[in-house]
Amino acid sequence: MDKEVDYSLCWLEYSKIDDEPYREKLSKVVKNIIAVGQDKFTQTAVEELKTAVTSLVGFEPEVSKEALCGDNPISGIIVGNVTDALIMKYISDDEIQKLDEEGYVIKSVKENPGLVVIGSKNGHGLVYGAFSFIKHIQLKRDVEEVHIIDNPKCKLRLLNHWDNMDGTVERGYAGRSIFFCDNKVTNSLGRIKDYARLLSSIGINGVVINNVNVNKNAIWLITPKYLGDLAKLADVFRQYGIKIYLSINFASPIYIGKLKTADPLDEDVIKWWKETAKTIYEYIPDFGGFLVKADSEFNPGPYKFGRDHADGANMLAEALAPYGGIVIWRCFVYNCTQDWRDTKTDRAKAAYDIFKPLDGKFAENVVLQVKYGPMDFQVREPVSPLFGGLERTNQLIELQITQEYTGQQIDLCYLATMWKEVLEFDTYAKGPESKVKYVVDGTLFNNKYSGFAGVSNVGSDKNWTGHWLAQANLYAFGMLAWDHSFTPEEIAREWCVRALTNDPFAVETIVSMLMRSWRVYEKYTAPLGIGWMVTPHTHYGPSVDGYEYSKWGTYHRADTKAIGIDRSVKSGTGFAGQYHRENAAMFESMETCPEELLLFFHRVPYDYVLKSGETLIQHIYNTHFEGAEEAEKLKEDWVKIKDYIRKDIYEDVLERFNRQIENAKEWRDVVNSYFYRKTGIPDKYGRKIY
Ligand code: GCV
């Protein structure tokens, strides 16, 4: 595949399979590809299989069409729709019944050894099926007896890019935007195609390409000024089953339409959005829809016009409905000009207070996008009470793949372990087993739209994600969005074999490093769920009081006796009461509150004894010493596998670990000194604090 600049293809890099007996077996199957249909998805699937086989096995397979293959092909991969006669010959009605719209079957034919069939109900499924088979052979799985029937669990599997048109990426740690440069849409479509391939191979079916903070030129993306160029991007993505979406500015009718208002109930405003939608769909017939950050962090929204979020979202939804588009409306709404002296206002409560009363009032093509926690992507937060709280509203979970608060792709932090805990959280909305995963896959409340939105960690860097190992987060996001039953460990292992090395010792070492990295990061940063304590604005490195006297609603309120926020119903802000009964009771009391969230829910004296038998202050010291040591251990492990890793990757990652170790020490010393000075209580093990 032609590349304009040098960059990695991550898990689609395809180096030749070194296991000869396996390659030989495989060669029999992959020497022919029989493409039943002629549509663009079949072409994509065939092209991908051909590229992969050529590199993995070492020869170019023959591609033939239905007419040439006759009734009884000897061996090869048949790719086609389940309604095609040739495919129907091998795939039973029963199997077809099990397929959803985007699902696929991969099956070796018993009566015809050496023949593998990939079938799906629609084109997207065929592309997913092709990528799945490629994964199958990269992982050297059996090709003689393969039988996979797979469907995505969630309908929407989206990436949000916080890319600005000047080429910067808000909270981006991997270089510049791959979509925009100098206020223009990129014409480097080769890289976009490779991006589409990577995303499609992990099941992503939509990308929002611009930042949710929509300013300046980006406001005009929804106009013909940019739509022609965007249509070219959409063409590339379409080929891989991915739709493009745009973030919009709610006040666009004023900025672009020269109207006096953007009031969602104003006739002219309604008309303006309808015309805008019509124009967009003329350029991009399968445009996904709008993502909206409204009345949030200085972005305009319906409040400005005396309306609520349902009024705003539904008006836009009506404009998109004739074309099948959706409105994704973010719930990240809170008072960002709070007085820190005000102890009654609790930012954690805001989203639920605002959106719960609107439950059931949104149009059927509106989806609410809810950050996993009630604050803002901290290393540890409770699950947002909107999951399980919203019972009659479509919803997406918003996860942050980009490591804004989790080490900025300098520090290693594999986020799948955190996401998995979030997904496994039981909301009790309909009794036990009402887990977040069943909210976001739409089954708990029978939603028309639901799924995952991940804030992308991708940029123009050679390795796409800044830290090579941060590719694992992108990979894991796609895998979990496709099927939340995957374990973080199996995802890490798969990614590692596909993208880095297949040496068993190296693989197990890297998997272990990934699996412990979130906890390591948590240990040396803010303790027990209190969050923040980061350097203001940049959000990397420690500043314990950095956000303490700010307007952002992000306080730990440490004094000489205690730290934490009382969010109980009995004596605090009442946030704990936003959960269903079982969880409300659990969070309400210090004794039953999970300890990792203790300071999020409670104000705790430093001499409070934790379940480990250590006091709170001692726990803070211990975890910070441990975290810094464990960061060094990550580097030591990496050094051990030097011989199994490509030299440039090895060196790049080593450099990141050196920086991580410095960061961890800085955190350890700043946090420990802060609490030692506040409390005057020494470390019982007599370690040097500063
Ligand atoms: C895109 C946090 C980040 C902002 C981000 C915002 C959001 O506040 O620091 O950079 O803005 O979340 O999610 O909208």
Layout of secondary structure:
Layout: H1 20-30, E1 32-35, H2 40-57, E2 62-65, H3 66-69, E3 76-81, H4 85-88, H5 93-97, E4 104-108, E5 115-120, H6 123-138, E6 147-150, E7 156-160, E8 180-181, E9 184-185, H7 189-201, E10 206-208, H8 224-238, E11 243-248, H9 252-255, H10 267-283, E12 289-292, H11 309-320, E13 326-330, H12 347-355, E14 366-371, H13 386-389, E15 395-400, H14 416-424, H15 436-440, E16 450-455, H16 471-482, H17 488-499, H18 504-524, E17 562-563, H19 581-588, H20 598-601, E18 604-605, H21 616-640, H22 647-679
Parallel strand pairs: 1-2, 1-3, 3-5, 7-10, 7-16, 10-11, 11-12, 12-13, 13-14, 14-15, 15-16
Antiparallel strand pairs: 4-5, 4-6, 8-9, 17-18
List its salient traits.
single chain, 690 residues, alpha/beta, Chitobiase, domain 2, TIM Barrel, Alpha-d-glucuronidase, C-terminal Domain, 22 helices, 18 strands, 11% strand, binds 4-O-methyl-alpha-D-glucopyranuronic acid, hydrolase
Please provide a written account of the structure.
With 690 residues, this protein is an alpha/beta fold. The protein has three domains: 10-150, 2-Layer Sandwich (Chitobiase, domain 2), CATH 3.30.379.10; 156-499, TIM Barrel (Alpha-Beta Barrel); 524-565 and 603-679, Alpha-d-glucuronidase, C-terminal Domain. The chain has 22 helices and 18 strands. It has helices at 20-30, 40-57, 66-69, 85-88, 93-97, 123-138, 189-201, 224-238, 252-255, 267-283, 309-320, 347-355, 386-389, 416-424, 436-440, 471-482, 488-499, 504-524, 581-588, 598-601, 616-640, 647-679; strands spanning 32-35, 62-65, 76-81, 104-108, 115-120, 147-150, 156-160, 180-181, 184-185, 206-208, 243-248, 289-292, 326-330, 366-371, 395-400, 450-455, 562-563, 604-605. Strands 7-10-11-12-13-14-15-16 form an eight-stranded parallel β-barrel. It has a six-stranded mixed beta sheet with strand order 2-1-3-5-4-6. Helix 2 packs parallel to helix 6 (123-138), helix 7 (189-201) crosses helix 8 (224-238) and helix 17 packs across helix 18 (504-524). The longest helix is centred in the last third of the chain and has 33 residues, at 647-679. It starts with 19 loop residues before the first helix and ends in an 11-residue tail after the last helix. Residues 162, 170-171, 211-213, 293, 297, 332, 376, 404 line the site of 4-O-methyl-alpha-D-glucopyranuronic acid (GCV).
